[in-house]
């Protein structure tokens, strides 16, 4: 047994209590410095340990383990998440899943990683994805729909994730157009769909999803704390990542099959009911320039219709949406 | 000087005349078998040589050479074809250009190859691309337009190619929906646009274009001759590939800039005026099933509107279009 496993057992035998460094050093028969080094290792692996010079160490949080075999069995989907590629560490689950898609991986192939060293968000931005505390995943989709439906699948993915997270956490999670999930204005999840098409036919989509599940405030850079949060911070309790993935796969496949059979209308209605963007005046930065207006709903293609001050309606396909200008 | 260069010079010194095998063997001081082997090498390189047991050998056709530096200077575009990657042989120009696009190659980067060993057409089909006789090329585009505009760029590419080839060859070239070029019902060019998108934004498009310029009937497999032809077969004369590429780059960039400034309407009108599909009753195989009808025009997204026997109109985004059912 490795010494940091022994140390972890010692901390776990004393839930919610401090264990003194002297006692640890004695029980494990190692120096105080060695104890401190093992504590650092556990922290790197996602454990949170409070250190008090007077009282010693106290275990605050243990990451839940993801067992990819048990995970695949935990949801009764036909395709989504049935083939799981699980990594301790990758550069980006998105890059791994794209390589799998290029080499013919079937629809529903899921890449999960405990840690991303080069996680990507929208528009090439970085994404904070520390070890063991979030869900960093990408899934291959192969819908037989024309290329103009790709933005509809972006909205569908946000709806599926929002509905499954609301059900599990009971937190007031809403969707900011097109596909960020927010709690009280702070981001808890980002979604990025990368599509490959041949003429008017989609070849595949790789849907990347990052969910800040059990991150604590200390996991975020100072400047992000005003804009980002986690389920654990908001609920005051950690959540099982495996349970979230299972619930999400189930909901995602259900809505996806509904979309393929019935089209986008039902998805658009669900999106609108969960959106925090509708009715909020915002500034939009589009490739053609900036404008201010109030989103009023989706059109049948998945673009957002925005009402300007003069009452005119514009349809926006692509933009960066700013903070609400008239937050109530 | 290599012996096949000497042999080529000998043939070129006798235009339209037969040179006997005995004379060649004597002049080059090699065996008759060696002469025959060199002839085979020239044929592989795109030369066409008629062999007569009585009269000897006669040079019928020499491939025009492509000089990528002179080519880039021959057209006055701002971006299209200004950076040229020229290869004697590649698996597929499309794969090479995609790799360049992924690593950040600028808009207009052009990949040209004398020969493709694994040329690809629509839906993973093969593409006949022998050495020195056609234009096998792929170009990187980075338009700042939403993903649903990708099919419009497919139609734009067909219009640009059709207009430049008609101007240079004066052949009656038409466009079969969406982007095949035909002369008298036979295919002379195929176009394949592969897009990569992030959510609703196009990251890049790689436009693959194959043009059967100087192929002779002997270059096609027997079963393709009823469906495929070349500019040379149809016009009874070869054409300069460099001149075609230069003309095409010029026209393509002009229409592309028009599209970015003014939108799709003008392009749609040009496409409709060059189309051989409009007004011709056809069978269409779509992902949802088969239907028969008569294409009547494009809608504003680039999809084709088809009138059915009962007078109803359907909009088709993606389909394989069959031969005309009522060819007049």
UniProtKB/TrEMBL annotation, chains A, B:
Signal peptide: none annotated. One of its GO terms (cellular component) is cytoplasm. GO terms for molecular function: ATP binding; biotin--[biotin carboxyl-carrier protein] ligase activity; DNA binding; transferase activity. It comes from the Bacteria. The keyword Nucleotide-binding applies. NCBIfam families: birA_ligase (TIGR00121). This is Bifunctional ligase/repressor BirA. The gene is birA.
